[in-house]
Amino acid sequence: MSFLLPCPHCGPRDVNEFDYAGEVTTRPTGTPDVRELAGYVYFRRNVAGVQREWWHHRFGCDAWFLAERDTRTNEVLCTEVPAARARS
Amino acid sequence: MTRLDPQPRERIDRSAELTFSYRGKPVTAFDGDTIGSALYASGVRVFSRSFKYHRRRGLLCCSGACPNCMMTVDGVPNVRVCAEPASAGAVVHPQNVLGSIDRDLLSIVDRIGRPFTPVGFYYRTMIRPRRLWPTYERFLRNVAGLGRIDRHGVRTTRYDTEHRRVDVLVVGGGASGLRAAREAAAGGERVLLADENPCAAPADGFDVVAPARALGIYEGGLVPVAAGTLLLRVRARRIVIATGAVEQPLVFPGNDLVGVMLPDGARRLVEDFALAPGDRAVVLAADDRALAVADVLRRAGVDVVASIDLRTDEPAKIEAAGRRGRLHGVTIDGAHHDCDLLVAAGTPQPAYSLLAQAGARVEYDTSRGVFCPTDLPPGIEAAGRVTGALGEVAPTRASHGGGFVCICEDVATKDLERALAEGFDSIELAKRYTTVTMGPCQGRLCHLSSIRLYARLQGAAEAAIGTTTARPPWAPVELGLLAGRSHEPAKRTALHARHEQAGAEIVWTGAWKRAHSYGDAAAEVRAVHEAAGVIDVSTLGKLLVTGPDAAAFLERLYPNRFADLKPGRVRYGVLSTDAGRIMDDGTVARLGEEQYYVTTTSTGSDSVHGWFEWWNASWGMDVEIVNLTGAVAAVNVAGPNARDLLAQATSADVSREALPYLAAREATVADVPCLILRIGFVGELGYELHFASPHAEHLWDTLVGLGATPFGLEAQRILRLEKQHIIVGQDTDSESNVLDAQMPWIVKFDKDDFVGKWALEHARARGPRELLVGFEMLDGVVPPEGSQVVREGRPGGRVTSARWSERLERGIGLAWVPPEHAREDAELEIRVDGRLEHARVRLQPFYDPDGSQLRT
């Protein structure tokens, strides 16, 4: 892998500066049953196509951000810092 | 051998001589010579022995493309000496010979072994009996193969990597490459030009790196360029490939004799190094540039007895004859010419490999007999002969009566015929079976001829045979260059110098260097139990978590409860994943309503920091997380005298009432502002001081001066084991959960949600599969960590930690055992050195089970 990934803070950087942290999963709400929990903990969609995923600019600004990337071509469609939710 | 009269463009400086050694004897060279040209000038003609048959081989391309001049230079094998600048003192040896380069005993393979060693013979003849394969393999490795590496060598070269961003990268410094570079530079673009030639043209408003080879075009337009001991990782907006065309050897019997050369090779010897490549020459070529070599040779005084233009007079049969590997004549369609130089080449093949790697298509041009690149991807350009602009050329025959197709791996036309007869009808399969194109030239000299031969043999069009896939590296590269600089970063605490001065044994723990002991771990344990010790715990991860949501954030992250923790108090916490597994542990001190000080394990600080940041990014809570690990040093003062000792260093009230067990206070110790945590990993009255790391040596010296005995990791491990305190990663693994690790009190199931809650609920409902328990040995042994716990003759658990406790006078440890064995006094058997040793389960800490020492 040698594509460029645009960090929302630092701009396009060599992908080796980043840690890949996997596709964005949805944490269940309420009390999941075993099957639902196992799905969330162990199973990934592993799409061949555009995937929403986590990245960490480990050797840069240390930001955690989201990217939309085509897993077939490594084309990065967009990156963004996740918006702060309503304060709990 | 004398040089020719000075040539107009010669690269040598006749006023500057230098000496290197070849086969132990000195060789004189001029400045500007390559090792190859200097050896040629000194009379060397046989430069190598071939890969398989050990045939004599001499200079062929003089451009670093072919395998014929590979030697070992200063211990580095497979150096193309024709392109390697001569340097004073270099030590050069021929390789792949048994005996000497002139009398290579292994050439017997060529003389009598050839009928028995057809293509792929070792797949068939050397597989039975199976048990003899190691013998066969040793034999084959000795006979075949190229240079040898020194298996006991040490790293002597420092390789480095450099990142470059430019507007335009030009690969190839020939006429069209230079033109492209100049034009781009004139247009105001930042240009880098990489060229293989050590004497590239001077820069003209742009950067030149030479001699340097572009290794490939990778994803994202990354071009690694090997420049000596430096690997440039170049990214450019625009990449111009001007790699030219590669002269193609003709395929005919005797085409590998010493004295058969490619036109540009002969030209370089004359023009660059003022050397005559022979006395009597025959020239066979298919383009004007190559045919012009005849004039170059004549001017150099070579008698050119025949010059044949293959475009108009292509012979059907060419046969070169030689004595002891050296050319002495050639017969062309029956006409014999005595000669010691045969300059022969077919249509030059555009060097399209980098373009194909970048995604260009490659098409066969039947009118010219070569493959040309087409459909270049965006950002990739081609200039000059690589585009197929070769002038007036015509296809030549695939072979003129047999001979070697691939001189790197000694693959002859017969071998390809045989491969086809055996059913390897695709060129990709033929490549893998015969290894044609897989040698050091990487197909530069044999790719086209192998395809054309396959087309002829199958009666198919070259386009239908197709090309094999172009892959990096396009040029040979040293593994050291890919590995880069030797890089083993060590983290040292602010007290490292003190540990070394005290004679500590230093060990790696993760990325940290730590003091294992100061010579006598048992004495250090005694000091902690009987007086006071001090240990450097600066490696602990330290995170400051602040903000209005700090309490709620930790409540969601930990199975523990932290919202009810009062400011000034500390609580032990264990982090869990959503799979319910233990991730890390440490202490959490509440410094204020909205401020927590979190410590992590030494190895876990980065991952826990990342974990916190990631969850915070997901939840979007109003929390700031600051990693203080490097900025803050920490020491732990422990032992019955710890309070008295500390009281001498501070005016703060450290009495039992003012600073009780699990209290956290900010106070000045030895004039250093500290955070004091009253906790006790090692089981005695203890104070953990956290403070700005520049003060570390001062504070350490003060505490040691007051009588604290420094203790290291080993003493700490014994002490904590006496308390059955776990070490995450040592006593737990990726399957362990906090319930089975016997810490159910950590988990507050009544909380609405926390990371790991559901999985832990399931684990609780399911019940434990195994439990972590303490054990003591009954007969004086200490089982190695990882030993097997055996019950009824079957494996039933494992030891995670074990040490000799001097205080208890027995071996103690922690082990995972089946739940039915996890009861006080249960008998265990532990396999040690094949014997079963007896142990007994102890569920309570061995030392101070009620914690009165801690609370005192």
Main beta sheet of chain B = 7 strands, mixed
Which stretches of chain B of 5+ consecutive residues score pLDDT under 50?
A: none
Unreliable runs of chain A: none
Shape verdict of chain B:
elongated
Shape summary of chain A: globular
Helix content of chain B: 10-25%
**β-sheet strand percentage of chain A:** 35-45%
* Second rung of CATH, namely the architecture of the domain at 521-540 and 631-735 in chain B: 2-Layer Sandwich
CATH class of chain A: Alpha Beta
CATH superfamily of chain A: Folate-binding superfamily
Percent helix range of chain A: 10-25%
Gyration radius from CA atoms of chain A, angstroms = 15 Å
Quaternary structure: heterodimer
Tell me how many strands of chain B there are: 47
Q: Could you give the count of β-strands of chain A? A: 6
What does this structure look like?
Chain A is mainly beta. The longest helix of chain A is centred in the middle third of the chain and has 9 residues, at 34-42. Chain A is 10% helix and 38% strand. The mean pLDDT of chain A is 91. Chain A has one helix at residues 34-42; strands spanning 4-7, 11-14, 19-23, 50-56, 64-70, 75-80. Chain A has one domain: Folate-binding fold, CATH 3.30.2270. Chain B has 856 residues and is of the alpha+beta class. Helices cover 21% and strands 30% of the residues of chain B. In chain B, helix 5 (175-186) links the parallel strand 8 and strand 9 (191-194). The chains are: A mainly beta (88), B alpha+beta (856). The A-B interface holds A 1-4, 14-15, 19, 21, 27-28, 31-32, 34, 37, 40-42, 54, 56, 58, 62, 64-65, 74, 81-88 and B 163, 218-220, 222, 233, 235, 548-549, 552, 577-579, 610, 613-614, 617-622, 758-759, 761-762.
